[in-house]
Amino acid sequence: MAIKIVNLIKSSALNTRLFKKLCTEMDSDHETLLFHTEVRWLSKGNMLGRLYELRAEVEIFRGDKKNNDLLKQFTNLACQMDLAYLVDIFTHLNKLNIQLQGSGNKNLENVANIFIFEDKLRAFICKLQLWLRKIEENHYSAFATLQSLVEDKKYDAFTANIQENIKTHLHMLIDEFNRYFPEYNEEANLDQKMIRNPFSTDASEVTEEIQEELIELQNDRNCKDAFESNSLESFWCKKALSYTKLREIALRYFIVFSTTYVNKDFLLCWY
User: Fold this and answer.
1) 39 is in which domain, residue-wise?
2) Given 183, 205, 238, which residue is the final one in a domain?
3) What is the pTM of this model?
4) How much of the chain, in percent, has pLDDT values that exceed 70?
5) Distance (Å, rounded) from C-alpha 229 to C-alpha 261?
6) The CA-based dihedral angle spanning residues 77, 79, 81, 87, taken in that order and rounded to the nearest 10 degrees
7) From the CB of residue 244, how many other CB atoms can be counted at a distance below 10 Å?
8) Tens of pLDDT along 141-165?
9) Cβ(203)–Cβ(245) under 8 Å?
10) End of a domain among 52, 75, 98?
């Protein structure tokens, strides 16, 4: 519905000008709605946020279009609560999306890696579970936009319904994230532990073919000092050159989910 509302107002040059004039006369913070574009990854969240901010202007604009059922439905209190929740949940999703884009820094010391991304995703799933428990206890602090409506008495009749909708949606999000990002198997987890900190990993835990090399690395004081003062990428690419088996495992993980910001130095680590 939100997309249809925006398209209804912006698809006509006349409606766009009239809506802009209305926003100007009301001294609104914005003068126009935003289109949702599939190819722009923050588009939907930004569109919903702008629509919510200009909902009063949209309602007045609807007054001039008395026969428009879509705009009339948009001003329904239950619909307003749904929109508020969507604004909040897309704000959280957009924040996660930005975190998964990488730092944008071409310096190898600051390139994000698969372990950082995995940590962000697991943290977000834990947040979803936390928000779900809070919603079940009628706490809406994680959804500030919606909370402001819940505290308004005129929305009391719709609170129970939106609560059930949110619980269902959060359950679906948790299931989808767990399906799309399944836990690694036990062997992979051991490899990750070794890559993250080879100096705190028990050599008996890793596969036999790399146990001796891991022990040699753990007793290499120069490498230990380099590990403490360098990023994981820099350590495995530039400092652990003598430990080819361990390094090959590490680089295999780093290249799995590398970002577009990774520079040629990172790719040349293989050679």
Assistant:
1) 1-75
2) 183
3) 0.73
4) 82
5) 22
6) -140
7) 10
8) 999 999 999 988 888 888 899 999 9
9) no
10) 75
